[in-house]
Design brief:
Strand content: 35-45%
Number of domains: 1
Distance between the termini: 19 Å
CATH class: Alpha Beta
Strand order of the largest sheet: 3-2-1-4-5-10-9
Largest sheet: 7 strands, mixed
Radius of gyration: 16 Å
Number of strands: 10
Helix content: 10-25%
Order of helices and strands: EHEHEEHEEEEHEE
CATH topology: Rossmann fold
Length: about 180
């Protein structure tokens, strides 16, 4: 994120809860940076309340994906894509004003297969998708992006009981640039 500091003045944080990553990264980012966090309506309401209480003025919230069309330098998703069936098309299909950069962190990319498992979230269970890496990259490249950097989050794993070949030992981070 710090690497993009001089090129990014606006961020669209997809599935960013109450602005958790904004607060975590804000000390590394320009004070002029405008950050918009997209999430479900109840979370957005709570995020707005917290930002108002903290007197934060460069953090906005949205529960409408159409707001992405207003133009952002960076599309950011950290740990949110695996809860969606087809996140790339959901976000980029029909988008005319594409962000210059896409940063996806904590991504469930598997070398050989795409599969869906079930994740326990403490109070219930939800579908959790692992994406075949090359297929995922081809899909986002079809929207005009090229891979600029990739890294592993080795400490994060998704072990699927009794299915070692389907398990994921390390999540992936990607930085892509619009060409």
């Amino acid at each position: 994120m710090e690497r993009l500091k001089d090129e990014v003045t606006s961020v669209y944080d997809f599935g960013g809860h109450v602005g958790i990553k904004f607060y975590a990264y804000s000390k590394y980012l320009s004070s002029n940076l405008n950050w918009t966090t997209y999430d479900v309506p109840a979370v957005v309401a709570r995020g707005r309340q917290l930002a108002a209480n903290k007197k934060v003025h460069n953090l906005q919230f949205s529960n409408d994906l159409k707001d992405l069309e207003s133009g952002f330098d960076l599309f950011f998703a950290s740990g949110s894509f695996q809860y969606l069936e087809n996140p790339i098309d959901l976000v980029f299909k029909g988008l005319k004003n594409k962000p210059k950069f896409v940063l996806i962190n904590m991504m469930t990319l598997h070398d050989t297969l795409t599969t869906v498992t079930v994740q326990s979230i403490g109070t219930g269970f939800c579908p959790y998708k692992l994406f075949q890496k090359e297929s995922f990259l081809r899909q986002i490249q079809a929207y005009g992006y090229e891979l600029s950097a990739e890294w592993k989050n080795a400490e994060k794993q998704c072990e699927i009981s009794f299915h070692e070949k389907e398990s994921l030992y390390g999540y992936t981070g990607l930085l892509l640039k619009l060409i």
